[in-house]
Write a structure and sequence with these properties.
With about 260 residues, the chain is of the alpha/beta class. Helix content is about 40%, strand content about 15%. It has a seven-stranded parallel beta sheet, with helices on both faces. α1 crosses α7, α3 packs parallel to α4 and α4 packs parallel to α5.
Length: about 260
C-alpha cells in the first residue's frame, strides 16, 4: 500500500457528533469525501438532514441520526443504532458542543452543571460506549474537537477598536482544557486494544466578524489570517485514517500558529 492509500477512509464507519455547525460542516465533508460511511448526529434534525442530503447528492454515504447529549438514553440509542446498522464503528469525532453558560462569570451552579453535563459528562459516556466497541474489534480512532482556547488564556486585545464587548466565562476554556487531558487519559486506557485517541484544536474560524477583530486576530497568528472553511479537513483525514496509525494521546493545534506565539 502506498502512503497516499493510507489516507483513505474507504470501508471505514465514521460517527460525527454535530455536523451542521462551523467546524462540523467541513469535518463531515472531509470524512465523507474521504470515502467513509458516515453517520452524523445532533439535536437539530432539520439542519442535519440538509447536510446529509447535500453530501448524498455529491455521491457520499451520509446518514443523519438524532442525538441529545443531555440524555443517557439518546447516547445509548445512537451507539446501538450505528452498531446495528453498520456492524462496527472505526472513527468517532466528538465535535458537538453546547455553550449554555458561555457568557459571564457569575452563574448559578446549575448553569455551569448544564454546560459540563454535555461538554464533559456526555463526552465521557459517548467515548466509553464507542471506545469499548472499538476495543472489541481491536482498532479505532477517536478524535476530540477541542479549541485553542483550551490551550491559552483569553486575548482581550483581539477586541480592541471593535464594538464587540466580550463578557468572558471560564467554562469553555475549562472544558476544552480538560478535553486535552481526557484525551491523554482515554488514549492510555484504550491504547492496549489498538484504539487511538487524539485531540484537534482549531483556531478562530472566520464567520463574518468585524474587520478590526479579524485584523487583530490575524496579527496574533503566525500565518496572518483566521481559519477558513477547509482548514480542518487535512488534519481530520490524517487522524481518522491509517496514516496516523502510530499517533495517539496527542493534540494538534490547527490555528495558524496562534498558540505558537
Amino acid at each position: 500500500m502506498s502512503v497516499l492509500d493510507s489516507f483513505s477512509l474507504a470501508g471505514k464507519v465514521v460517527v460525527v457528533t454535530g455536523g451542521a455547525g462551523l467546524y462540523g460542516r467541513q469535518i463531515v465533508a472531509a470524512v465523507a469525501g474521504g470515502g467513509g460511511k458516515v453517520f452524523i448526529a445532533a439535536r437539530d434534525q432539520t439542519k442535519l438532514e440538509a447536510v446529509a442530503a447535500e453530501e448524498r447528492a455529491a455521491g457520499h454515504d451520509v446518514t443523519a441520526l438524532a442525538l441529545d447529549l443531555d440524555a443517557d438514553a439518546s447516547i445509548e440509542a445512537l451507539h446501538a443504532t450505528v452498531i446495528e446498522a453498520a456492524g462496527r464503528c472505526d472513527v468517532l469525532v466528538n465535535n458537538a458542543v453546547t455553550r449554555s453558560a458561555i457568557s459571564g462569570w457569575d452563574h448559578k451552579l446549575e448553569d455551569y452543571d448544564r454546560s459540563l453535563r454535555v461538554n464533559a459528562s456526555a463526552l465521557f459516556k459517548i467515548t466509553s460506549l464507542f471506545g469499548k466497541s472499538m476495543a472489541a474489534q481491536k482498532s479505532g480512532s477517536i478524535i476530540n474537537i477541542g479549541s485553542m482556547m483550551g490551550m491559552v488564556g483569553l486575548e482581550m486585545a483581539n477586541y480592541d477598536g471593535t464594538e464587540m464587548m466580550p463578557d468572558p466565562s471560564p467554562i469553555y476554556h475549562y472544558e476544552k482544557g480538560g478535553m486535552l487531558n481526557f484525551t491523554r487519559w482515554a488514549a492510555s486506557i484504550l491504547g492496549k486494544d489498538n484504539v487511538r485517541v487524539n485531540c484537534l484544536s482549531p483556531g478562530g474560524l472566520y464567520s463574518g466578524q468585524p474587520e478590526r477583530f479579524v485584523q487583530n486576530y490575524s496579527d496574533r497568528t503566525q500565518l496572518g489570517r483566521m481559519a477558513n472553511d477547509t482548514d480542518l479537513m487535512g488534519a481530520i483525514i490524517f487522524l481518522a485514517s491509517d496514516a496516523s496509525a502510530y499517533v495517539t494521546g496527542t493534540n494538534i493545534p490547527v490555528d495558524g500558529g496562534y498558540t505558537a506565539k
